[in-house]
Design the sequence.
């Protein structure tokens, strides 16, 4: 015959069972809430990454398009150079043409043609004519390009007037294969800075432009 369980012992175990059930219920609820929060966090992260990819693609198209337009202007200068030359240098309409080109491209400040010594022979800014820039990095890099097939993009630099600039350039290669000078376009980093600011959609967002 089995001994009967004491009523006192059964009463003592009931609160413990209730507490265990309560803890199990709270653990289950907490797990469900944590899972829901994690899913929300993951969704927000995916949405932000997609937003950043979209912003990056827009920036790439915008900035690349501006540089490609400036490069197209340089190529036109190379193709038109012989037609622009007169007996005493470049014809006046060539300078006026570059002025119109610069006005059509708000991110560009200066277009110029340099001879082999780095002296400006043609520009939309007449005050640059006769000035020598052979020690500038963009001129040195272009002069080293023997085939003239590369577009050289130099890092932003500060001028003597304290203005930040960025220059893209191409080498002039004569029909005999000799170096004939440089064509260059000076771009304003302020233009790119303004475009990048437009891509910020939250106050604490930072946008940085890097070139490999």
Sequence:
């Amino acid at each position: 015959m089995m001994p009967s369980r004491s009523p006192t012992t059964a009463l003592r175990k009931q609160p413990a069972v209730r507490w265990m059930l309560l803890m199990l219920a709270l653990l289950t609820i907490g797990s469900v809430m944590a899972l829901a929060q994690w899913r929300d966090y993951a969704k927000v992260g995916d949405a932000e990454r997609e937003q950043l990819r979209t912003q990056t693609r827009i920036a790439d198209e915008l900035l690349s398009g501006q540089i490609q337009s400036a490069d197209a202007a340089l190529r036109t200068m190379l193709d038109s150079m012989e037609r622009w030359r007169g007996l005493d240098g470049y014809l006046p309409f060539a300078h006026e043409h570059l002025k119109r080109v610069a006005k059509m491209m708000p991110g560009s400040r200066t277009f110029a043609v340099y001879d082999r010594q780095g002296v400006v022979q043609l520009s939309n800014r007449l005050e640059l004519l006769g000035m020598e820039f052979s020690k500038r990095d963009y001129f040195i890099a272009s002069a080293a390009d023997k085939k003239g097939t590369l577009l050289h993009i130099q890092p932003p630099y500060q001028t003597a007037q304290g203005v930040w600039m960025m220059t893209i350039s191409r080498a002039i290669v004569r029909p005999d294969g000799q170096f004939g000078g440089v064509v260059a376009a000076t771009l304003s980093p302020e233009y790119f800075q303004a475009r990048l600011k437009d891509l910020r959609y939250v106050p604490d967002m930072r946008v940085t432009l890097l070139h490999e």
Helices lie at 7-84, 92-104, 137-143, 189-198. The chain has a mean pLDDT of 83. The longest strand covers residues 164-173.
